[in-house]
Amino acid sequence: MIIESVAKANDKKNAREHVKSGKVTDLSGPEKEQFAAEFVQRRIRAILARKDVEQKRQEEMIFLGMQRRPKTEEELKNGPIQRALETAQ
Predict the structure, then answer these.
(1) What is the spatial distance between Cα 4 and Cα 26, in angstroms, rounded to a whole number?
(2) pTM of the prediction?
(3) CA-to-CA distance for 39 and 3, rounded, in angstroms?
(4) What is the percentage of the chain residues whose pLDDT exceeds 70?
(5) I want to staple 61 with a disulfide (CB 3.0 to 4.6 A). Which of 36, 56, 67, 78 is the partner?
(6) Which residue pairs from 66-70 have beta carbons closer than 8 angstroms and sit at least 24 positions apart in sequence?
């Protein structure tokens, strides 16, 4: 039982590798859909992971004082430029 499940998993892995390398191009409909879905999921996961890492990197840079924190809406609204424009009028 266990040997059969391991053999099936190994066959699926080998089939994917053959498709990736271009050796096999005649997949059935469900196999094509499965392969495409896995491909898209891998790409989306990678994109989301990179976004998360970049966000954490920015937070760390702000925490360490190597980068300024972004201004809040209140700071933008009451900033020196806005006050200078109001004073000029």
Answers:
(1) 25
(2) 0.54
(3) 28
(4) 78
(5) 67
(6) none
